[in-house]
Amino acid sequence: MARARRLRVATFNINNINKRLPNLLAWLDATQPDIVALQELKAKDSAFPLAAVEAAGYGAVWQGEKTWNGVALLARGAEPVIIRRRLPGDDEDGQARYIEAAIGGIVVASIYAPNGNPQPGPKFAYKLAWMKRLIAHAAELRAAGVPVILAGDYNIAPTEIDIYPTKSWDDDALIQPGPRRSFHRLVNQCWTDALRHLHPDERIYSFWTYWRGRFDRDHGLRLDHILLSPDLAGRLEDAGVDRDARGRDGASDHAPVWALLER
């Protein structure tokens, strides 16, 4: 009997979808992911390039924001069914950082967590409060007993091997104990960090700043994560980073992270 085709799920902080649309379309064509979570669209709703995305074979839902933030979900050959466009827990939070939809019987969220810099300060407090809201909502999703994928740019390097050996980031919000505790609290709800689960001891990065040749020197951080609910974790076959996408002309400072699931 022929083996069923696997489900390829990816998350990609595109860092301005219209500016980097050729990069996105080239990556979609080369890798053919089935489900894509995008972050940092940096485009208002009306500026989302739907025609180009549909021509590439994808349905889409998105939540835009002029200049900053913005999240989307793409589904190859299908239309995502929107569930929510905001993270619950704060009706006054207007930042476009969370979108959730049903795709092929799976609840998928695209997450763009706050950066939190400078810390300490109000932006760092917002980061911690936002993660607390995410933990609470993730617990509700787990309790519902449905297959769930929480994919995105969490703006947290969870452990020391998720950042290149350096002291230069010691004061950065991305590696502070508070955010790291928040990430571990989330994972400890029985979510599986797909990439780390399959590569427990390997230094694998998904983000390299544009400064000082950091990409060429592989001075990166792992900020982009795909978390799987238990029923999906049992179907996990492979995971990795499409590092080559970061090396293209006009690239985002992030590379796509992907996971392959048995259908």
From TrEMBL:
Record-linked InterPro entries: AP_endonuc_1, AP_endonuclease_F1_BS, Endo/exonu/phosph_ase_sf, Endo/exonuclease/phosphatase, ExoIII-like
Gene3D superfamilies linked: Endonuclease/exonuclease/phosphatase (3.60.10.10)
Catalytic residues in the record: 112, 153 (proton donor/acceptor), 254 (proton acceptor)
Short name of any one Pfam family annotated for the protein: Exo_endo_phos
One Gene Ontology molecular-function label: metal ion binding
Cofactor: Mg(2+); Mn(2+)
Sequence positions that bind Mg(2+): 13, 40, 153, 155, 253-254
Source species, domain of life: Bacteria
Site feature location: Important for catalytic activity: 224
Coiled coil (residue ranges): none
Residue ranges of every copy of the Endonuclease/exonuclease/phosphatase domain listed in the record: 10-254
CDD domains (UniProt xref): ExoIII-like_AP-endo (cd09086)
One BP annotation, GO: DNA repair
Cofactor details (free text): Probably binds two magnesium or manganese ions per subunit.
Assigned keywords, A-Z: Hydrolase, Magnesium, Manganese, Metal-binding
Site, Interaction with DNA substrate: residue positions: 254
Protein family according to the UniProt entry: Belongs to the DNA repair enzymes AP/ExoA family.
NCBIfam families documented for this protein: exoDNase_III, xth
Protein name: Exodeoxyribonuclease III
Native source species: Bosea lupini
Lineage of the organism: Bacteria, Pseudomonadati, Pseudomonadota, Alphaproteobacteria, Hyphomicrobiales
